[in-house]
Design a protein that fits this description.
about 60 residues, mainly alpha
């Protein structure tokens, strides 16, 4: 695998920094909103995660 040049690494860092700065107002708003909302929607979060875990488990079983 080929190593990246210095200018490519600097460019990738600048792009990452711009993306972080671009999304920071939305991230702040989301954090403030999440502090005000009660955490009662765990089923809505855990159900899709559980389905993904089961899907990966079955893929591993079929593959072996």
């Amino acid at each position: 695998m080929e190593e990246h040049n210095t200018w490519e690494m600097i460019l990738a860092g600048l792009i990452a920094l711009i993306v972080i700065l671009w999304f920071s107002p939305g991230i702040k708003t989301a954090f403030q909103h999440s502090k005000q909302v009660e955490n009662k929607d765990w089923k809505g979060f855990l159900f899709p995660i559980g389905l993904v875990i089961l899907f990966v488990f079955f893929l591993i079983l079929v593959r072996s």
